[in-house]
Design a protein that fits this description.
The complex is a heterodimer of chains A (about 250) and B (about 350). With about 250 residues, chain A is α/β, with parallel strands linked by helices. In chain A, about 35% of the residues lie in helices and about 15% in strands. In chain A, about 55% of the residues are buried. Helices cover about 40% and strands about 20% of the residues of chain B. In chain B, helix 1 runs parallel beside helix 2 and helix 3 packs parallel to helix 4. The chains are: A alpha/beta (about 250), B alpha/beta (about 350). Strand 2 of chain A pairs parallel with strand 9 of chain B. The structure holds thiamine diphosphate, iron/sulfur cluster (SF4) and magnesium ion. The site of magnesium ion (MG) has 8 residues of chain A, from helix 3.
Chain lengths: ~250, ~350
């Protein structure tokens, strides 16, 4: 028997909109996964998102759920206020590496350490996308950016920060995982992780953190395919995929 | 509840609870630590939550989150802590989220000192954070008034969907007075389904976005015009106390603790037959400009007394608009003007 699979837009995707993301950007893929998970878990009317400052600042234009805008890096605190006052809701932060690992370092560590019952999706693209490609805390050694034009030098800027590993040193957080959207095989795993991170919230478990190794073809100065190859070849050795904590 | 002797900070905390505030996010700082301490003991028992934030930056963003769900929310801090909150306050105003913020002021700039001050008048009334926004700013001068203002602040915040700041100073926070705190029931406030997050189901699947980002300049201007109209409307909340002003030749203007000291000076001078009165702004924004202008029309002089180097005096000058000379007297650094000093100032004017 012939099987027909219809590829449709997720129900929680805002009707008829196209994103402003550059072609081949990992933000778009991750948004789609988020929508699929929201649909599959049936939580569209029950979810409150917080939008970051970064390329995903306008994510509320694409995902049809309640949203509150966060100041740069402050989404974990904002989400804490939302979740504490509405513990019946599913609450998430979606943050870039400048947002989460630089300006918002205090907020991310403490949201994890308090074990707030919410979910964080962390888009690591090793650069400040929105402001035009400056160095991020996650920029790799030797990687060029507009503010490390000769490549990141550890003598001057230290080494790229591994957020999963850092957060996993804390006793409280429940689920910490690093995934990627660089190739279809990784995308399938990324979706499973995101789904689990939301299911944890439905089950009223503690804090879940999903790091997504993404890309920024525009500011890396690479065509999309090459960019995702770079994610795999250059980012992954420094940022190994895997589960760092799972409620144990 | 009968009248009981309470410390200012605790009275504010209990008043908030009696007004239905069940969530508090804060960070310790002198001289207001009794508020978070009180909240941490009481709120868990009434089904609410106290969260000790990692910083004032985080605290105000938690307040923003709590406010965004239409919940009565408060944070309290002092001066330097409010500086850290200023980014968040600007976002809260821009996103039109209700919140109550108490500043128990201490001296500045920088770390300054821990003694009482009124040096954050500019910060409260003129901004602090970026952009064209306004806070409703209320300054109590007795603890009973602080109780009432705290309770009403939640209603005003929700009514205007705007942050409300209560500007108290270290004296107000630390002194004890007899207060009566009763349960405050809010009336005629917009239902949270009408604007808040977390009600998509109740709204039949229509979601809600709270944001301050408008990349299109026309849209951003429209947003600012909308906010400006709201701030205009807030002008009807103006409150003041006019004390012995009817026949006054000298009008003193002071707020908060300074107004208490000024009142004693005025009572003493009146016994000597000196015609002096006081206009005490209770709302610092909106400022009682019209009333001051009226009073200045028949007055010989307006004297502003503050616990700072002269901040409210600028609003007084603008209100008086040249109708009478305006002068300033004040102390900074945690020193309060004495009754005698104020009397001497007025005698010198005569
Ligand atoms: C307080 C503050 N500082 C700086 C900025 C400017 N800014 C906007 S986005 C951004 C960096 C975003 O990078 P990242 O979080 O990695 O997100 P990406 O765009 O790469 O997804 C910066 C610095 C800001 N909006 N607010
Ligand atoms: S600038 Fe980079 S992160 Fe931003 S949309 Fe373009 S590719 Fe994506
Ligand atoms: Mg980035």
């Amino acid at each position: 028997m012939k099987e027909t699979k219809i590829y449709e837009r997720p129900k929680s995707w805002v009707d008829g909109v196209h994103t402003h993301y550059c072609p081949g950007c990992g933000h778009g893929i991750t948004h789609r996964l988020l929508c699929e998970v929201i649909d599959e878990l049936g939580i569209q009317e029950n979810t409150i998102g917080t939008a970051p400052v970064g390329c995903a600042a306008l994510m509320y234009d694409y995902i049809d759920i309640d949203f509150c805008e966060a100041a740069h890096g402050r989404a974990p605190a904002l989400a804490t206020g939302i979740k504490r006052t509405r513990p019946d809701k599913i609450v998430f932060t979606y943050q870039g590496d400048g947002d989460l690992a630089s300006i918002g370092t205090a907020e991310i560590i403490h949201v994890a350490n308090r074990g707030e019952k919410l979910t964080t999706i962390f888009i690591n693209n090793a650069i400040y996308g929105m402001t035009g490609g400056q160095m991020a805390p996650t920029t790799l050694i030797g990687q060029k950016s507009t503010t490390c034009p000769f490549g990141r030098d550890p003598e001057l800027a230290g080494y790229p920060m591994r957020m999963c590993e850092m957060l996993a040193t804390l006793e409280t957080p429940g689920y910490i995982i690093r995934v990627s959207v660089a190739k279809p095989k990784y995308v399938i795993e990324a979706k499973k992780a995101i789904k689990k991170a939301f299911q944890n919230q439905i089950d009223r478990k503690g804090y879940s953190f999903v790091e997504v190794l993404s890309n920024c073809p525009t500011n890396w100065g690479m065509p999309p395919v090459e960019a995702f190859e770079w994610t795999e070849s250059t980012m992954m050795p420094h940022y190994p995929l895997g589960v760092f904590k799972d409620f144990k | 509840m009968a009248r009981v002797l309470m410390k200012g900070t605790e009275a504010i905390a209990e008043a908030a609870i009696q007004a239905g505030c069940k969530y508090f996010f804060g960070y310790p700082i002198t001289p207001q630590n009794e508020i978070p301490e009180y909240m941490s003991a009481k709120l868990p028992k009434i089904g609410g939550a106290y969260v000790q934030a990692e910083s004032e930056v985080a605290a105000i963003n938690m307040v923003m989150g709590g406010g965004s769900t239409g919940t009565k929310i408060m944070t309290t801090s002092s001066s330097v802590g409010i500086s850290l909150m200023s980014e968040g306050i600007s976002y809260i105003a821009g996103c039109e989220i209700p919140a109550v913020i108490v500043n128990v002021m201490r001296g500045g700039p920088g770390l300054g000192g821990i003694l009482p001050s009124q040096a954050d008048y500019f910060q409260a009334t003129k901004g602090g954070g970026n952009g064209d926004y306004r806070l409703l700013v209320l300054a109590p001068s007795t603890l009973q008034e602080a109780v009432e203002i705290t309770q009403e602040a939640f209603d005003l915040a929700i009514k205007y969907r705007n942050p409300v700041m209560i500007l108290a100073d270290g004296f107000m926070g630390q002194m004890m007075e007899a207060v009566e705190i009763t349960e405050h029931v809010s009336k005629d406030l917009p239902k949270r389904e009408s604007w808040a997050l977390g009600c998509m189901g109740e709204r039949g699947g229509k979601r809600r976005i709270l944001k301050s980002l408008y990349l299109n300049p026309e849209n951003l201007e429209q947003h600012n015009i909308h906010l400006h109209k709201k701030y205009k409307e807030m002008e009807k909340e103006v409150r003041f106390e006019s004390f012995l002003c009817d026949d006054a030749e000298i009008i003193l203007s002071a707020f908060g603790t300074t107004a208490r000291i000024a009142r004693s000076a005025i009572n003493n001078l009146r016994r000597e037959g000196i015609k002096v009165g006081m206009l005490r702004p209770i709302t610092l924004f909106p400022f009682p400009s019209d009333k001051l202008n009226d009073l200045a029309t028949g007055a010989k002089h307006v004297l502003v007394v503050e616990m700072n180097m002269g901040q409210m005096v600028e609003d007084v000058r603008a209100a008086v608009c040249g109708k009478a000379p305006v002068s300033f007297f004040g102390h900074a650094g945690g020193i309060a003007p004495s009754v005698k000093e104020i009397e001497d100032q007025i005698r010198a004017i005569l």
